[in-house]
Design goal:
By secondary structure, the protein is α/β, with parallel strands linked by helices. It has 14 helices and eight strands. Strands 3-2-1-4-5-6-7-8 form an eight-stranded mixed sheet, with helices on both faces. The longest helix has 33 residues.
């Protein structure tokens, strides 16, 4: 994780060995197992994390947002979206709630996809009260349970005639390797499979809606990760939740680029909100949260680019499939960081996701058949 600037003396920054040791101790970025400091993997990991950290201090903090916002066009968000529908996962707190509130204030119909019904109801009351917009609906779905995500998406398609914008915001960072009911690692199930299944299933509904968009909330942490196609379930080596989360966020970028190529009718984007003061960050990374303190962005600042991508005409004019930070498309790879994927690696990744998605669909079909059998009268 990343600490306050004053905790890293200039002398420390000038010493690569100490910097690498500090980074690995804070458990941010890649965990590299090698026999010595001269190992190429060790050096590359150090390079990626050093560049990423220095960029982050300048760009990802509250100070970075204030600097970037000077070039924002206020008129971009002077819009009304009455009659347009927006689905937001993880909408009961943090960036998701801030996004839902901003959209509701502009008149949009908001579908909140949340895991906890009570917290969702509380958030909905706040959103309706502050926006004066009663068109806010709750859908209780656990994004880590892939067959449940599929079941929800299929039901949504049947119940609603259109969906203009899907915002994949819900995320998970488990510090220990845990499996969901389907045997999938929880971070991967939530951050990657849940996003994949929800988006893939809703694409037909989005395609027949006006000005359709899909926005995925990723993380700048993905910049230190290369797509790893041989261990999607994080079964090899030592499990590091932060590293796994960053890998999932790289996967989201790869998915967005793929969807943009295969679905030209829909505008796809993926974004980095910066380092934001959210309940999820304080829970998953308490030391980072404490050390950064008021350097962290507010939730409204973190949500700004999501809202801009969802509402503005300016965003729709940008090329589909790009990675955004503070309303601007930015590179998805650090210079000379060796994080690009080959076409074969991307195909392997997508094939594995499709196989896992089909397994989730099969489980859903089995569950539905079981319910039908249970409700059928038995005559003796």
């Amino acid at each position: 994780m990343i600490g306050r600037e004053q905790h890293i003396a200039p002398a420390r920054l000038s010493c690569e060995a100490n910097l690498c040791q500090w980074w690995r101790k804070e458990r941010w970025g890649e965990v590299v197992h090698c026999s010595g400091d001269c190992c190429p993997l060790h050096i590359m990991s150090l390079y990626r994390n050093t560049i990423w950290f220095l960029n982050g201090i300048q760009q990802y903090t509250r100070k970075g947002y204030v600097a970037a916002s000077k070039s924002f066009e206020a008129k971009d968000l002077e819009v009304s979206v009455v009659g347009r529908s927006f689905m937001i996962t993880g909408a009961n707190s943090g960036i998701g709630k801030a996004t839902a509130k901003a959209i509701a204030k502009k008149g949009g119909t908001v579908h909140m996809v949340c895991r906890n019904k009570d917290r969702a109801e509380e958030a909905k009351s706040e959103i309706v009260s502050e926006s004066g917009n009663a068109e806010v609906y709750i859908h209780v779905v656990d994004m880590s349970q892939t067959h449940k995500v599929w079941e929800f998406a299929e039901a949504f398609k049947k119940e609603y005639p259109s969906l203009n914008v899907l915002i994949n915001n819900a995320g998970c960072m488990m510090s220990k390797r845990e499996l969901n009911a389907e045997g999938l690692e929880m971070n991967f199930a939530t951050n990657t499979m849940g996003v994949y299944i929800l988006t893939q299933t809703l694409i037909p509904l989005l395609q027949k809606s006006r000005d359709p968009r899909v926005i995925t909330v990723s993380s700048g942490g993905m910049l230190v990760q290369k797509l790893q196609v041989d261990d999607l379930q994080s079964e090899k080596g030592r499990f590091d939740g932060v590293m796994v989360y960053a890998q999932n966020k790289r996967q989201q970028v790869v998915l967005t680029e793929h969807w943009a190529k295969t679905n030209p009718v829909i505008h796809f984007s993926v974004m980095h909100p910066g380092w934001v003061d959210t309940p999820a960050v304080s829970t998953a990374m308490p030391q980072f949260h404490h050390m950064m303190g008021d350097r962290l962005r507010s939730v409204d600042q973190g949500a700004d680019t999501v809202v801009w991508l969802a509402l503005s005409r300016a965003a729709a004019r940008k090329r589909s499939g790009q990675f955004f930070q503070d309303r601007k498309p930015v590179a998805t790879h650090l210079t000379l960081a060796w994080t690009h994927s080959s076409p074969e690696e991307t195909r392997s990744f997508l094939t594995q996701l499709e196989t896992l998605a089909r397994a989730a669909q099969s489980r859903r079909d089995v569950d539905l058949k079981g319910r039908e059998d249970a409700s059928t009268p038995q005559f003796v």
